[in-house]
Amino acid sequence: MENAVKFIGFRRHCLTTDGEGVTTLAAFWGCPLRCRYCLNPHSLREGTKCEELTPMQLYDKVKLDNLYFLATGGGVTFGGGEPLLQVPFMHEFRKICGGEWRLYVETSLNVPWSLVQATTDIIDGYIVDIKDTDPDIYKRYTTRENAQVLDNLQRLIEIVGTERVLVRVPLIPSFNTEEHRARSKARLREMGVTRFDELTYKTEINK
User: Fold this and answer.
1) For residues 111 and 118, is the Cβ–Cβ distance under 8 A?
2) Which of 7, 28, 63, 204 could form a disulfide with 80 if both were Cys (CB 3.0 to 4.6 A apart)?
3) Distance, C-alpha 29 to centroid of its chain
4) pLDDT at residue 117 is higher than 50
């Protein structure tokens, strides 16, 4: 199907966990990271059973919750995987759904700046999973560098402001500590971040 992309799953009626108000989480297949304990490993595996949808088909799928979205100031949250790998799809979806729904992305920001910049006029909120600002910890966990992540975050804040950006700073058992997390938060505050979400990853180590 033309303009169709792969989704690994959907979750309706999320309340304040993936954006403001009631939201539907739509998770794309595909990610640039290879995290040691990936929370959605099926977003990486070739052969994963996916649902391929065009922007219009996604709209038809989620519009049954239109009243919830409008009443609570919610909408659709794009996750994954990495949603910023699907910028054309999200632009087309915004044209279809109009401006009344809020659109969010849950992102690692580990993509070229051009992809981030291309979303600033269509995305209402960014939920950034920063992992850890320490480059060694980040690389051990994700197998990637984090210089691009921090640069993208700084530039994003300068364009959209602090209120549209929520940064998740997780505690990752065997990879970082509360002290590391405190250092990350201090550095992020220096960059202008004001909104944080602290959580603990569930890994094989702490199950």
Assistant:
1) no
2) 28
3) 13
4) yes
